[in-house]
Design a protein that fits this description.
Helices cover about 30% and strands about 20% of the residues. The protein has helices at about 5-10, 10-30, 35-40, 65-70, 105-120, 140-150, 160-170, 180-195, 200-210, 230-240, 355-360, 395-415; strands at about 85-90, 100, 125-130, 155, 175-180, 220-225, 245-250, 260, 270, 275-280, 295-300, 310-315, 330-335, 340, 345, 350, 365-375, 380-390, 420-425, 440. The strands form five sheets. The chain has an eight-stranded mixed beta sheet with strand order 4-3-5-6-7-8-9-13, with helices on both faces. Helix 5 (about 105-120) packs across helix 6 and helix 7 (about 160-170) packs across helix 8 (about 180-195). The longest helix has 19 residues, at about 10-30. Bound molecules: adenosine-5'-diphosphate and zinc ion.
């Protein structure tokens, strides 16, 4: 059940002892960087002031801007001659940042990813296909090394070329696939066009009549890298006939392997032998009351080249209460609500794209793709939601009543009335990487 029982089975108090030990080492190590030496001096603290985990709050936050200002190598805590790899954030929200790794960092990262994959039941003998972009995007090499570390046959299919992706799935007998959620839907559509039914239980078939080219051996999907709703996950599971597990990570924290669902699918265990977790109010920066939503702040405690103290991730989530039946005591994060930058403010109401998605995915008539466009006329903000239909229909009355019902349910959820437009399947723009769900075309009004 556990790949690393010595870490996965730690009790809460054992986790805290280990964290304190690793935090002390990390802070001492941070003093090798000019950045943290200055930070500590400016705030009048010394490493010796951090005696308990609660003292962590005395240390100033590290932000994405700090990483940009240190571009490319100023945050290295080791001589550059010991750095063996760099990754860069995909720059969804601005100038790229650079993250450095020693060989030990890469080893520990692979261990973390292998632990996650083992946790959801993958084993040597499974065939793991990775449809992430390789290169700077950490979902490529991150899963590659982790899956190899676990001992799976690992296929670096990389992003795009969906037909070839599907050919690999059927020819190699791929059992587990890593894909971003928006791509999983696309895969299914193309499989359908190719006459392949991924839901077919092929195991028996293969035993009896040999390999079956019109079905797959897929049983597990790893989905992550972008926000998605529980409804979207269930759809992916049903479409592809798999179990789909949520995977959370970011370049600044190595990449994938930060937090992952176990087989209970009830939140993402965050590995507390690697990270110390805080959830703060993004405005006051004070800790939120237990169990409330706020910004995830992470401190790395198992990293050499580029340790980060109290890094503001901008991702919004909360810590789930209670014990997990899997026996791991590592905290569980709720499904990400989005980044603080994803929040739309319309007529003074705060709205996250994921709220819109949750409503849309409840309608079986609707496909997986949607686009929210914000415009303004005079002082009036307007939201238009375009969503693809699942199948062609020219039944005007049915479409009209469907539009009405979607609008009504969206209004209940987001408190404003959007304009809903049903569009034909495949007509919304598709991205190679992470899906773009919002276009803000609002003009600044003088
Ligand atoms: P970029 O910041 O340029 O998008 P990254 O690849 O480092 O580059 O993306 C990390 C971000 O992706 C996270 O901070 C988070 O916002 C998002 N993300 C990653 N995994 C998930 C997930 N499982 N659910 C929701 N959002 C996720
Ligand atoms: Zn669990």
């Amino acid at each position: 059940m556990y790949l690393h029982p010595e870490f996965e089975k730690l009790t809460r108090s054992e986790i805290e002892v280990l964290q304190m030990e690793r935090l002390k080492k990390t802070i001492d190590h941070c003093m090798n960087t000019e950045f943290y030496r200055r930070r500590f001096a400016e705030s009048g603290i010394t490493p010796g002031d951090i005696r308990t985990l609660a003292d962590l709050g005395k240390i100033p936050f590290t932000t994405k801007q700090d990483l940009r200002d240190s571009y490319p190598f100023k945050m290295s805590a080791v001589p550059l001659s010991r750095v063996v790899r760099l990754h860069s954030s995909s720059g969804t929200t601005g100038t790229p940042t650079v993250i450095l790794h020693t060989q030990r960092d890469l080893d520990e990262w692979a261990n973390a990813v292998a632990r996650c994959l083992y946790m959801v039941g993958l084993r040597p003998g499974d065939i793991f296909q990775n449809s992430s972009g390789y290169g700077m995007f950490t979902g490529g090499l991150g899963f590659q090394y982790g899956a190899e570390r676990l001992g799976m046959l690992t296929v670096p299919a990389a992003a795009g070329n969906t037909k070839r992706q599907i050919k690999f799935i059927t020819d190699f007998g791929t059992t587990a696939l890593h894909a971003i959620p928006s791509y999983a839907g696309r895969l299914y559509e193309v499989m359908e066009e190719m006459g392949i039914d991924p839901r077919r239980d092929t195991h028996l078939h293969t035993l009896i009549i040999g390999a079956e080219p019109h079905s797959t051996h897929l049983h597990t999907l790893i989905i992550g890298a972008e926000p998605h709703s529980e409804e979207q996950r269930r759809r992916i599971e049903q479409m592809l006939g798999v179990k789909a597990y949520n995977s959370f990570g970011m370049s600044e924290m190595c990449g994938p392997g930060v937090a992952f669902e176990c087989r209970e699918q009830n939140g993402l265990h965050i590995w507390e032998d690697y990270y110390i977790v805080e959830i703060v109010d993004p405005v006051t920066l004070e800790p939120v009351p237990e169990g409330e939503v706020g910004e995830l702040v992470l401190t790395t405690i198992n990293r050499e080249a580029m340790p980060l103290l109290r890094y503001r991730t901008r991702d919004l989530t909360r810590i789930l209460p209670g014990e997990c039946p899997c026996g791991r005591h590592h905290l569980r994060l709720d499904r990400m609500k989005g980044r603080s930058d994803d929040m739309m403010i319309l007529k003074g109401v705060n709205i996250f794209p994921i709220q819109v998605e949750t409503v849309l995915m409840q309608f079986p008539e609707l496909g997986n793709d949607y686009l929210i466009t914000l415009t303004n006329e005079e002082a009036n903000d307007l939201m238009t939601v375009e969503v693809e239909l699942n199948a062609f229909s020219d039944d005007y009355h049915r479409l009209q009543s469907l539009t009405k019902e979607i609008t009504r349910q969206l209004k209940d959820e987001i408190l404003i009335t959007p304009v809903v437009r049903l569009v034909s399947k495949g007509s919304l723009p598709k991205q190679e990487g992470k899906a773009v769900r919002v276009r803000d075309l609002r003009k600044t009004l003088i």
